Amino acid sequence: MNDQTIIISASTGIYKYALTSNALEKLIGCQSADGKTTDSFGYFGLSKDCKNGKIYFASREKGEKIFKKKKSSATTIYSLNKFTNSIDYVKKFKGIEDVHQIALDEKNFYLTDTGRNRIWVQDRLLEQPPEVWNIGWRRKDLNHINSIALYNGHLMIGLNNRGRNSEIVMLPDLSERRSSRFFPIKAIAKWPLSEITHTHDMELSANYLFFCASHEGVLYRLDINSDVGRPVPVIHSEPWLRGIAVQGKICWVGVSQVADRTERYSADRTAKIIECSLETGTLLNEYKLGNIGQINDMCLSG
């Protein structure tokens, strides 16, 4: 398993980390080559397309309209060719406030519009205007939607709920979807996460959904098909956990320093990746990454 390469989105850039050589390579930062500041406030969601060998990632950026207390009201999607490390512009979305995670299938991109409590859906051919799926009636950051994943044609959404008990909801079959720009889309299944808060990131493996309780330093596993539907703690670590990659019986989880929101973007902050057994929850290895700020998402490049 140690020949893997992990792609990392962080508050200071997109990184490529080779587990065998402990080599960390910065692929793109928040500054241009001449040192001038770019539009990016940091890089967040990552999603891999196994068919074309590309990894897509989201950059938080300044938009034409600035919402109250939010710096980012636009999102740019880029693609990374994992073989050449080349990065290409895909599309800029004006109006997405504080994107967190993204997902994709053969037809669409899915992006969390966290600050407005909704999901944006864009066809991958970029031929149609984006659809907007509202979660609830109010366009405020009530549920702090910060994680999404696709499961058998359904979109799974993680509701962080800002320190209250978190939740996971499942939307109807995507083939039956209708744009919900004005009316909320109804969930067909819900998993209340009693006494679990500050959740981030979701990663699917078979019928299991993995997610982080970041502040508590716990990685949980949820059996989607279980009648009980109670999450099981798999790994206990130090905070701040965010970023999950799973393959077989091994997982890699990002660990960042706890910091206030205004201090998370500092390159002076170190981070690391822990490698763990999903069977026993034991720590198998630890990889120190140096000063990259805060890890936001991860995926295996292989």
Structure in words:
The protein contains no helices and 24 strands. The protein is mainly β. The strands form 6 sheets. A 4-stranded antiparallel sheet has the order 3-2-1-24, with no helix packed on it. Strands 4-5-6-7 form a 4-stranded antiparallel sheet, with no helix packed on it. The radius of gyration is 18 Å and the shape is globular.
Name the average pLDDT.
89
Poorly predicted tracts of residues: 32-37
Q: Please summarize the sheet with the most strands.
A: 4 strands, antiparallel
Rounded to the nearest angstrom, the distance between the terminal CA atoms is 11 Å
Order of helices and strands: EEEEEEEEEEEEEEEEEEEEEEEE
Topology record:
Layout: E1 5-10, E2 13-18, E3 23-29, E4 40-49, E5 54-61, E6 74-81, E7 87-94, E8 102-104, E9 108-113, E10 118-123, E11 131-134, E12 145-151, E13 154-159, E14 166-170, E15 189-193, E16 199-205, E17 208-213, E18 218-223, E19 232-236, E20 241-247, E21 250-256, E22 270-277, E23 283-291, E24 295-300
Antiparallel strand pairs: 1-2, 1-24, 2-3, 4-5, 5-6, 6-7, 8-9, 9-10, 10-11, 12-13, 13-14, 14-15, 16-17, 17-18, 18-19, 20-21, 21-22, 22-23
Task: Give short descriptive properties of this protein.
24 strands; four-stranded antiparallel sheet; 302 residues; single chain; mainly beta
